[in-house]
Write a structure and sequence with these properties.
The protein is of the alpha+beta class and 221 residues long. It has 6 helices and 9 strands, in the order ααααββββαβββββα.
Amino acid sequence: MRLVTFVVALALVGSVACGQSAAEKQAEQAAEDLKKAAEAAVEAQKQGGDLGKGMADLGKAMQGMAAAMNGGDGKPVDPVSGDALKSTLPTVAGWQMDDPRTERMTSPIAFSQVESEFKKGDAAIEVKVVDTGFAQMLIAPWAMFMASGFSRETSDGYEKATTVAGQPGFEKWDKDDKHGELNVFVAKRFLVTIEGRDLADTKVLHEFAAKMDFGKFAGLK
C-alpha cells in the first residue's frame, strides 16, 4: 500500500469527534488505535521493517473502527437475497433504469448486492446497494471515510463526509471529469453507492438518494 494511503488514513481518523457518551468514547478509542497502527505501518515502510505485521495490525484497527461505527452491536447475519434488494432501487422521473443485476456470495465474506444504471441523455448514474450482513471487513474501509468532520478540497474537486436522511455518508466530486459519487451507510449494515458521470454537480445524486426509502432497509428479508 502506498505511503499516501496511510497519510490519508491518519487525516481521516484525526477528524473523529470526541465525546462523553459510551459510543463516542468507543469511537474515539478506535480512532486512536487506528491512528497508532497507521503510524506504525508508515514507520515500518520507511525503515524497511516488517510491513506485513504493520498491515495486519492496521487491518485489526480498521475492524475496530468499523465496530465502533456500527455501535458494536452488529453481529454477522446472512445477507438478504439480491432479489429482495431490488426493492431498494429508486424510481426517478425522467431517468430510464436498466434491468437490475444481482449477486450473492457466501464465502469467504457473505454479502449480496444489486445494481442498475439509470440514463438520461448523455448522463448516466449507477446505483448499487450492498447488504454487508454486518461483515466488518466490508464496513471498515467506509468507516474511515465517513468519520465525522472529514473534508478534503483540491483544485480538481472535493471529498467530504456528509449526512443523508440521517445516515452517515461520503461525497466526492471531480469537476474536470464531471464525475460524482455519493455513498451512504444505511441502518449500520447496507452500503449504498450512487455514482454518476457527465453531471453538472452532485445535486442529482442527492435527488436519487431522496427517492430511496432508507427506513425500510432494516426490515428487508
